[in-house]
């Protein structure tokens, strides 16, 4: 019996994720020539100190930062077109946080973020969240104007072609997971996966959604269909570092 695909509702992230994603984005954002700069990011701080709660938090922070980077030009245009930027109460040093949180806000269809009970709140995140949410109607309208202007059905249209091609290729490649043999054995992983509805097959050519194979050359490596990426990353096996994504 095949399992239904789990739909992950986008509720936003804890404050610490935004803080770390902004620090990462600050170091990787595209620098523009002085005559073309309209959005200013303040000075780059070298090797910012980041405290990740766990491996999941690290992955999500980097993912959020790189998604923001992909759409940097679009996000800046939305801020300018909606007249949300410049905002003189928000210093240039927090512009990265502003852009990161804007990406997440539009990704949630401009819906309010869920606050996690156990999270530690950060004043700058709360300030920027409230500011962006107060402009949500103008921001959504600016996004709609951009899509009309560029005849784009979705924001994926705005990804540079070279990155889009890389993502298309990557999305079709199988996923390779190392078994952390310091924590679990192949037999226990197999048992756990079978309890969750996965079926072992002989090779990649036999894949049929909830299936996996043992690598022919490395018997502590499991191979899965690319379509299962999000579900696999939400398994306890991954969260507990018993399976490590290659």
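Sequence proposed for the structure above (246 residues):
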């Amino acid at each position: 019996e095949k399992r239904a695909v789990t739909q992950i509702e986008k509720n936003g992230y804890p404050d610490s994720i935004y803080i770390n994603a902004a620090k990462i984005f600050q170091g990787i954002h595209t620098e523009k020539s002085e005559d073309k700069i309209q959005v200013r990011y303040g000075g780059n701080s070298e090797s910012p100190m980041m405290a990740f709660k766990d491996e999941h938090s690290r992955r999500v922070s980097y993912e959020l930062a790189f998604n923001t980077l992909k759409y940097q030009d679009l996000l800046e245009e939305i801020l300018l077109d909606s007249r949300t930027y410049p905002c003189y109460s928000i210093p240039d040093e927090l512009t990265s946080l502003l852009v990161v949180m804007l990406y997440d806000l539009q990704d949630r269809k401009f819906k309010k973020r869920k606050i996690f009970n156990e999270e530690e709140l950060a004043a700058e995140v709360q300030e920027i969240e409230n500011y962006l949410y107060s402009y949500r109607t103008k921001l959504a309208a600016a996004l709609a104007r951009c899509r009309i202007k560029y005849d784009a059905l979705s924001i994926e249209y705005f990804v540079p072609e070279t990155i889009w091609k890389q993502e298309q290729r990557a999305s079709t490649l199988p996923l390779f997971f190392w078994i952390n043999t310091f924590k679990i054995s192949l037999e226990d992983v197999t048992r756990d996966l079978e309890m969750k509805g996965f079926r072992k097959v002989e090779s990649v050519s036999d894949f049929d959604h909830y299936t996996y194979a043992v690598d022919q050359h490395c018997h502590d490596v499991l191979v899965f269909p690319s379509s299962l990426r999000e579900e696999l990353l939400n398994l306890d096996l991954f969260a507990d570092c018993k399976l490590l994504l290659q």
